[in-house]
Write a structure and sequence with these properties.
about 120 residues, mainly alpha, about 50% helix
């Protein structure tokens, strides 16, 4: 399950804690991120895909990338007409990892090929 920005939700500690009913994992997330600004119950999350919008971690609910994608009614940022020019998503994926840059590049290439815009 891939989020709007390309993050693999299945690898997310908050997602794993939620689906496994692992309260300790949620406590670790709450402690590790944003200097404890969110409580463990605020990290309960089923991923940010279109079908899970009512079950998001508070941080993910406030994500500007997710908000933009839902406003545009796209399944993934790679399907956005402004993908290459979007500093919000480009800066994020580059800061995350080279793997995420590759994944989003592949998704974008696949989308464009299906649209008859690339190869």
């Amino acid at each position: 399950m891939i989020g709007y920005c390309g993050i693999n939700c299945l690898e997310c500690t908050a997602f794993q804690g939620t689906v496994k009913g692992d309260e300790e994992r949620l406590k670790r997330v709450a402690t590790a991120y944003w200097k404890g600004a969110y409580q463990p119950h605020e990290w309960v999350c089923l991923g940010c895909g279109p079908h899970n919008q009512h079950f998001l971690a508070k941080y993910c609910y406030e994500c500007k990338i997710r908000l933009c994608a839902t406003e545009r009614a796209i399944q993934n940022c790679a399907a956005c007409d402004e993908f290459e020019q979007c500093a919000k998503v480009q800066d994020f994926i580059k800061a995350e990892s080279p793997e995420l840059v590759r994944t989003m590049g592949w998704l974008r290439g696949s989308y464009l090929a299906r649209q008859g815009q690339g190869g």
